[in-house]
Amino acid sequence: MNLHEYQAKDLLKKYNVPVQEGIAVDNVKAAEDAYTQITTQTNNKFAVIKAQIHAGGRGKGKVVETGINGVKVAKSIEEMGTYANGILGGTLVTIQTGPAGKKVNKVLIAQDVYYPGPNETKEFYLSILLDRAKGQNVIMYSTEGGMDIEEVAHNTPEKIFKEWVFPGGGLQGFQARKIAFNLGLSGEALKNCVKFVTNLYNAYVGLDCAMLEINPFFKTSDDKMIAVDCKMGLDENALMRHPDLAALRDVTEEDPTEVEAGQYNLNFVKLDGNVGCMVNGAGLAMATMDMIKLSGGEPANFLDVGGTANAQTVEAGFRIIMKDPNVKTILINIFGGIVRCDRVAAGVIEAYNKIGNIEIPIIVRLQGTNAIEAKKLIDESGLKVQSAVLLSEAADLVKQAVA
Amino acid sequence: MAVLVNKNSKILVQGFTGTEGTFHASQMIEYGTNVVGGVTPNKGGTLHLERPVFNTVADAVKNTGADVSIIFVPPAFAADAIMEAADAGIALVVCITEGIPVQDMVKVKNYLEGKTTRLIGPNCPGVITAEEAKVGIMPGFIFKKGRIGIVSKSGTLTYEAADQAVKAGLGISTAIGIGGDPIIGTPTVEAVKLLMEDPETDGIIMIGEIGGSMEADAARWIKDNKTKPVVGFIAGQTAPPGRRMGHAGAIVGGADDTAAAKMKIMAECGIAVVASPADIGKTMAAELAKK
């Protein structure tokens, strides 16, 4: 589950991680008030407005309706008003959102951190994530901040450093110091960096993050170390022990069909194809999508109905898949092990009858316990449903349906 | 004999008296698995499914001599249950539980370091040695006795593969469901090694999915150590990048963990890679016929 920048920064502050201060607002008047408040506090007429969406590339991205970038620096309350007016409620398209873009419901009005001072400013990169192969958390960092880190990794891999954290002992002082030295810091900046990295790691573990990225990780002209931007992803499995974090979910950032599927406990991912599918088990569901593609179709979705493929789940699955007008046919692929195929077949028939006017062809492949009885039930139901037992037979039926 | 579990294994069920534990333990017993008892804290001293219940794994081991444990404990307590089993000296721990927080598994992996306990899973269907022992939630009847081993990240896809192998005139020695989480106890390569060294296994079906590097690691090992045919399939060829596909670990993060990249390296390492999941069984039969 992803968080907005303003939510992530609020959480980091609780762990004493210094951040670029700001106020999240949802209307122009509040944006102007926030400008006044922030510029008075900082004694600096510059303030930044940042669109709050779950995607990167906001600075270069543009709001379709107004042509304004997703991140702007305002040097007067009038400018702030203009920008807020041009961003809030608009559709921001960035390199990461796809052409449809994302609606901006909130903006963060933040302090200008590039203020002049005794020393030069610097932008670094820092992230914490799981190294799956080692089964350990790893801190990835680089002197090349403020840009796309994948490009840095590709073009200058020697500029990416990694520090693995030993699970038994946590992050050690010498490791935090090593990070600061490798970033070329000294004096106050070094001390501040050690504190920042230590507290950030505590936040990562304490909040059960799946990933935490600070880019840019910024040294101010007076040697403070702060998070200017923050991307935070939470481990969904751990939300059970963080009800306060679960409440931060912004469903407007998610596909509405996926949100609805979640309410039925269906694991659903929307795709762009023409063949819908409903499968029990995540691996078999992915494999079924692959088979649809090999049969000449394109999968319209991923849908794992889980261990209980009964009339209710099948009905919910049908309704969700059929919301997509591009779907030409639906393949139900159930490997009945402990759940008997004849019961699944009865559920399919019940769901089909309940919905009534299903106009697209349905292919049902049931294999496992009582597969033959299940096929007979489907074939004798009089419904416009084709049945198969073997996976290869189902593939042939998909081929005919999309031909 | 096959690998990991057999008819002599003494199996303990952690989370024995819960709904899941009760249902699947009954199915395991019906299959003929030697379930010697279970653990549910605070229910020690009672009987469940005609078998003794203990408060701790250590008590259960002392009284039953159990050497294998299967875990049906809810996700919030599953990591603790794995560590308790390891502490009690259980040789093989099979964790079925789905939804364990990743940081809990970081802890577990570190805890198991240097111990002799092997963990299978979590988020897996378990392990079955055909007609000897079912330590998992798979439908037992599909796994007809034979000489093909299966290593898989997925549940129903394992059943699909086993069923196809049986229909192709083959059978199953041991099927190992290693699990679909980002951190698991026994990675693909270790499960493949066990089957490669097993004299009762003639061929190996290796089923992976998008995310991580376990299939590539296994492929490199297979290249240098292959003594029997390996058929491979990777689920998620059509999965979009950056989206989690059901399993917590099934997410394309970069260029190396796509299905295409994994299939390429597997093919280069001498694995018979199939693009369609419908071809797994017949390809295994064809590979064995070549020998």
Task: Describe the structure in your own words.
Chain A has 403 residues and is an alpha+beta fold. Helix content of chain A is 36%, strand content 24%. Chain A has helices spanning 5-14, 28-42, 77-87, 149-155, 173-182, 187-206, 243-246, 256-263, 282-294, 311-321, 341-355, 371-379, 391-402, and strands spanning 22-25, 47-51, 62-63, 71-74, 91-93, 102-103, 107-111, 122-131, 136-142, 160-165, 209-219, 225-227, 231-234, 267-270, 275-279, 301-304, 329-336, 362-368, 385-388. In chain A, the strands form 5 sheets. In chain A, strands 8, 9, 10, 11, 12 and 13 form a 6-stranded antiparallel beta sheet that branches. The longest helix of chain A has 20 residues, at 187-206. Chain A is elongated, with a radius of gyration of 26 Å. With 291 residues, chain B is α/β, with parallel strands linked by helices. In chain B, 34% of the residues lie in helices and 22% in strands. Chain B has 9 helices and 14 strands. In chain B, the strands form 2 sheets. A 7-stranded mixed beta sheet of chain B has the order 3-4-2-1-5-6-7, sandwiched between helices. In chain B, helix 8 (259-268) links the parallel strand 13 (230-235) and strand 14. The longest helix of chain B is centred in the first third of the chain and has 13 residues, at 19-31. The mean pLDDT of chain B is 95. At the A-B interface, helix 9 and helix 13 of A face helix 4 and helix 5 of B.
User: What's the β-strand tally of chain A?
Assistant: 19
- So what's the overall shape of chain B? globular
Largest sheet composition of chain A: 6 strands, antiparallel
- Helix/strand/pairing class of chain B, anyone? alpha/beta
Taking Cα atoms only, what radius of gyration of chain B do you get, to the nearest Å?
18 Å
Rounded to the nearest angstrom, the radius of gyration of chain A is 26 Å
Please report the two chains with the greatest interface, counting residues with C-beta closer than 8 angstroms to the partner's C-beta.
A-B, 53 and 63 residues
The SS-based structural class of chain A is: alpha+beta
Beta fraction of the residues of chain B? 15-25%
How many helices of chain A? The count is 13
**Count of strand segments of chain B:** 14
- Give the N-to-C terminal Cα separation of chain A: 39 Å
The number of helical elements of chain B comes to: 9
Uncertain parts of chain A: none
Helical coverage of chain A, percent range: 25-40%
